[in-house]
Amino acid sequence: MPSLLWFRRDLRLRDHPALVAAADSDQDVLACFVLDPRLEASSGARRLQFLGDSLRQLDSDLGGRLLVTRGRPEQRISQLAKAIGASSVHISEDFAPYGRRRDERVREKLGPVPLVATGSPYLVSPGRVTKDDDTPYKVFTPFFRRWREVGWRAPAQSGAETARWFDPAEVSVQRCEIPDPGATLDLAAGEEAAQSEWEAFVDDGLQRYAADRNRPDLSGTSRMSAHLKFGTIHPRTLVSDLNLRQRSDAAYLRELAFRDFYAAVLHHWPASGWWNWNRNFDSIETDTDAAAERRFQAWKAGTTGYPIVDAGMRQLREVGFMHNRVRMIVASFLVKDLHLPWQWGARWFLEQLVDGDMANNQHGWQWCAGSGTDAAPYFRVFNPLTQGEKFDPAGDYIRRWVPELRDADDPHLRKGDRPPGYPEPIVDHAAERSEALRRYGNIG
């Protein structure tokens, strides 16, 4: 009897424990992917493009033997299992709230056919890192120490060469086209591109990572976030190339630990996807009237009159990516200068980002809003002008994304005239900082 390998956030053939488990069963393996209409509807065109390009690469690597179908997973996976008489269905475990609910529905529909979860998208899966009393961590630093003690396995041996792939042409289940919305990406998708991009970063970027990672004007990051989101590369593969005695390598590991931490927070507190992790913040006063909506539209369009904010928002709109330091700046601006709900910004990011990930995105926003774990102190309000000067000192990032400021002597606009066509600031930062502190001071 054959087995079914259901690809999800693991669109690769290397370092794939679920693939190894399916291949080790000494059975033919049918590789499939289910396009879930609910996830399609919540994904922007660029994220669907990255997904589609990754699926095309995976299908090519499988010699055209990836079966792609559209529908509710509980219906499609049970149909596929029945159609081939599957003895088991293999997956990488999903820990996000939606994924867990979906997998429970699939298990129920499969009946006696086991849904076998092997491995996950993380270095250390959510739920494995807990305190001595088995309760989850609420603060990153002690989590990080225990996370390193728990440790992770070496990359899995490849199972693609030993697997006997089932020909999907023999399966009488409706197939669909792989998505191709025609969106332009600034990052190549798929496993081959992920490996190539990572190797280039290790050769010519990793040693500068600790110094350059906060500089949006420099190519100081690995750009692995979208590849990690879709699993075209596994974090174990990345860590196997790190020398943790080096400062930059250790700094990179810490960022991977944050990814695992936020996944664990969402796992243990699933409501924190859209609600304040610290429910005391439910009482904070936010603006949601027509004037607030106009300010929100200016923020989305990158027409706030604050150069570093506008550069980040235009980069997001144009290519579906934003440097992490700038994500923090624009998030602080929305929450503490515009006094808008963090959920408004988080939703826009998920619509636009190629690497949009529920755990990372929502808890990064809550960090800025002060309502999450390890939150920035409420009295810390990023000044968009000084942040721009500090992290984009020559203004190269601003000039790249805000054409009205390309010829400005001072693209940060701390002195001199404001160029024609570039808007005046929509708010006064000093005044709004005082207002934010007043509102935060009234919490609880």
From TrEMBL:
Residues 1-123 form the Photolyase/cryptochrome alpha/beta domain. It comes from the Bacteria. The keyword Lipid metabolism does not apply. FAD binds at residues 209, 221-225, 252, 255-262, 355-357. InterPro entries: Crypto/Photolyase_FAD-like_sf, Crypto/Photolyase_N_sf, Cryptochr/Photolyase_FAD-bd, Cryptochrome/DNA_photolyase_1, DNA_photolyase_1_CS_C, DNA_photolyase_N, Rossmann-like_a/b/a_fold. Binds 1 FAD per subunit. GO terms for molecular function: deoxyribodipyrimidine photo-lyase activity; DNA binding; FAD binding. The keyword Flavoprotein applies. GO terms for biological process: nucleobase-containing compound metabolic process; response to light stimulus; response to stress. Its cofactor is FAD. Keywords: Chromophore, FAD, Flavoprotein, Lyase. Belongs to the DNA photolyase family. This is Deoxyribodipyrimidine photolyase.
